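Ticket #4471: structure export looks truncated?
Reporter: QA, pipeline team
Priority: medium

Steps to reproduce: submit the single chain below to the structure queue and open the exported record.
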Amino acid sequence: MTDILTERTSGRVPDYWYGLPHGYLPLDLDPPVEKLTALVNHLLGLPEEARNQAERVLRLYAGVVTALNSHDVQGCAIGLHPDDEGGFAQSVLTFSTVPASGVNAALALADLAVTAAEDPEKDVQPLELPCGTGFLAVETRSVVAPGRPPEEDGTLPEEPVWQGTIAVTGPGMSDIVVVQLVTPALELADDYRDVLLGVGHTVSFIDPSLAEKADGAGDTGPGAAADTSKNPFG
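Actual output as written to the record:
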């Protein structure tokens, strides 16, 4: 079972909905002031050693939220899953939209797919999802390693990550929804690809509550809202 989450930007009605698989914790990108105040007060009451560690975590959280908001990310979830070595594999799921700028969203999506396919480092394939037509692009690239100090020459250390991106739009949509999964666990790339595809199959441009009403009314015909909210994770 997954949780159905909603994208809310500036308090407006959600444009799309999606599900999260087990092991992913949603990150609050717009924490209320009261919550932050409570966290700070709790931090100040901790013993010095624990307070220093908690302060680092809080600063990391603040930095991540600031960075994600600066890139107009509307949803984020952190994944932790046991690996074969007794540790945990980490991954990050993000959800955002790309405006079509007055152009037909399907045409803009096709243009994005062509641009992605021209990159020799990316593997691009078309997708037919329950919510509409899209594409999947995967690549391995280098990013700045978080939490590691600079090298002696001042350069920031990097690490390779696997990155998968799904871009999709639907009938009547003016935006392109982008779902992205990033993980440093390169050996689990195939597994995370399946996770990303599963998440892509949960994306819906129809309110899931309408699907529940349709189920209750026995509306299971073609195009019914119930068909758009089937859960690939069980």
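Status: closed, not a bug. The export was complete when the record was re-opened. Leaving a note from the reviewer for reference: The beta strands are 3-6, 17-20, 24-26, 75-82, 88-99, 123-129, 132-144, 158-168, 175-183.
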